[in-house]
Amino acid sequence: MVAKTFRGGVHPPEYKELTESSAIEALPPPEKVIVPLIQHIGAPCQPAVADETVLKKGDSVCLGEKIGDTDAFVSAPVHASVSGEVMEIGEARLVDGRKVPAVVIESDGEDRPCESIQPAASLENLTPDEIKEIIREAGIVGMGGAAFPCHVKYSPPEGIELDTIIINGCECEPFLTCDDRLMREDPGEIVFGLQAILKATGAERGVIAVENNKPDAIEAMRAAVDGTSLEVVIVETKYPEGAEKQLIKAVTDREVPSGGLPFQIGVVVNNVATAASIARAVKTGMPLYERIVTVSGDVVARPANLLVRIGTPIRELFEYCGGFTEPPARIIAGGPMMGQAVGDLDIPVVKGMSGLLAVSSEISAYHEEEPCIRCGRCVDVCPAFLMPLYAARYPDDEALEYDPLDCIECGSCAYICPANQRLLARIRLAKAEAQARADAAG
Ligand code: SF4
Ligand code: SF4
Known about the structure:
Layout: E1 25-26, E2 32-36, E3 46-47, E4 60-61, E5 66-69, E6 78-79, E7 84-93, E8 99-107, H1 128-137, H2 150-153, E9 164-169, H3 178-185, H4 187-201, E10 205-211, H5 215-225, E11 231-235, H6 244-252, E12 267-271, H7 272-284, E13 290-296, E14 304-309, H8 314-320, E15 330-333, E16 340-341, E17 355-359, H9 377-381, H10 388-391, H11 412-416, H12 423-440
Parallel strand pairs: 1-14, 9-10, 9-12, 10-11, 13-17
Antiparallel strand pairs: 2-8, 3-5, 4-7, 5-6, 7-8, 13-14, 15-16, 15-17
Bound molecules: iron/sulfur cluster (2 copies).
One iron/sulfur cluster is lined by residues 372-378, 389, 416-419, 421, 423.
């Protein structure tokens, strides 16, 4: 069977052998968690408990208790990932360097779940609005990295109907294997989550897309959808196969319009971990308070896939994995292609953090930038049909004529460039400027 794909893309070394055979291990709950009040795209939460009283230092919280919320529609509440006492409403630094408000909780070591958390009615007896409300209250956001609130994704503007839900099991970034392991170890939860999303949105077609370098995951997902109307679609192993617009093109042959969003063509894409979290919220009432993180890299003593409480300092994940065999040249949150360099091991795990990498200079070598030789390779690989060499001429105004807003920031151009041009870094700046001008123009 020919695997589906998109135009462009690159084939970086995979490095998945470091963790693909490592079954998911639960990291023991930490003594202290730092839960940021913004872990999503949208409005930040305010510290609050379920009855909307303000959360304060000294308050006792139970596992899964809501500790932050807002009235804004585009947002997602956050929850206590351990039971214990609120030490402070302080600050956390995020991967991108921002300092944001956060709730710091000292664990009592008991992991007391909230008594008020109860399973919902069976999926058959829930209405679409009830399912969306469960998803909202559980604080579920896209866990592949984008962290967009799911209840918003499932509520398109009037007049737009969603017909296809794609569950993204591509995991095309090198090193990462947390989605692969989830598909192999818990495929039934992913299927249940997809069925809940279909009911919430009214969409008819449900697809689980997996790259063809994950035969065990494909087999597990095929067995799990057996007897249902859901499909497992095999896509080519290529970066960035899991990017939203590229995956939609590969699976449905539809194109998201330039500057548009998937709902405009009736499609929603969610990561496999997101689907599994939705399943848990519907089945048990438990919100999103933990996630699987791949801890890998050539200088990690024992790379692993860890089930981790949100708010755990990333230092504890590396320590659990035996620390470093040599000082890392670079620590990265996410994958090496789209992830961000980390300079502070005290930052907490957040809902959208799928990987933590520590790599040597052999993998993370710095190469001097040389003049462009106009080879055109960046144009050949760009999955967004851009001309990166010209879009990267920013701050030259001419760069803005090359559609930087359509850049999905995959980094394929910078990866392939023989002259080591800092293409992505400059295109990001051009994109920010183009967005600012578009906003100013109304
Ligand atoms: S790949 Fe690099 S060297 Fe080749 S055209 Fe693009 S920017 Fe220039
Ligand atoms: S221009 Fe943007 S979308 Fe195109 S390859 Fe570069 S980073 Fe990816």
